[in-house]
Amino acid sequence: MIIAANLKTNFTRKETSNYIEELSTYMNQNAISQEVLVFPAMSSLDTNETKVIVGAQNAYPTVNGAFTGEIGLTHLEEFGIKTILIGHSERRHILGETQESLVKKFNYFKELGFKIVYCVGEPLEKREAGKETMMEYISAQYEGIDTEYENLIIAYEPVWAIGTGLTPTLEDIEEIHATLKSKSKAPLLYGGSVKVTNAKEVLALKNVDGILVGSAALYGEHFCSMIGYAEELS
Ligand code: PGA
Fold this sequence. Notes:
Layout: E1 2-6, H1 13-29, E2 35-39, E3 53-54, H2 73-77, E4 83-86, H3 89-93, H4 99-111, E5 115-120, H5 124-128, H6 131-140, E6 152-156, H7 170-181, E7 188-191, H8 199-203, E8 210-213, H9 220-233
Parallel strand pairs: 1-2, 1-8, 2-3, 4-5, 5-6, 6-7, 7-8
Helix pairs in contact: 1-9
2-phosphoglycolic acid binds at residues 6, 157, 162-163, 191-194, 212-216.
């Protein structure tokens, strides 16, 4: 399974390094064979020699150049980073990234062979508008994306469940995952208010290949427990 932590705009470089160390120690002590990914804030990227895979929350599709506020391939290569998160709802909805710009980014990092965690998910009004509208919305987020890319991981994260403590029912997650699996055979993670208290039941669902965790991942101990659940279930 794939257990991923999106640290968002949290943790300094030092805190991030301590965090990765904590996960790494846990993984070694418990002979964890799951894939553990951590996405730190940009300025907290660093070299990493542990089993934890460190990825970027974002980068601009360029080697370098004049893109104020962005980082490019050079900055990822400095730390040996070959994993990236693309299409997270906060980037779509707060930072205004369009499907078109995400496709460009996707193709750029795909050409370079990056492991890509590509996020999809509907806002509340689309969910409330019924299943058909909701699936249409999510399907549009697959447009232009190579769903057969070998290093692709998809994360289904309902926008209204992110950071809110709300989650779809387990039945809902299972149903949507089954539908999304018909669009791509890539590993499919669930994200949105996954906590140490619900992680195990989510991980146990059919067609759930892992979780993408935000707020609850900031507690190292909790995140380690989630890694442990994945190990138990595998
Ligand atoms: P959350 O965030 O776990 O805080 O809901 C998940 C995410 O944004 O990936």
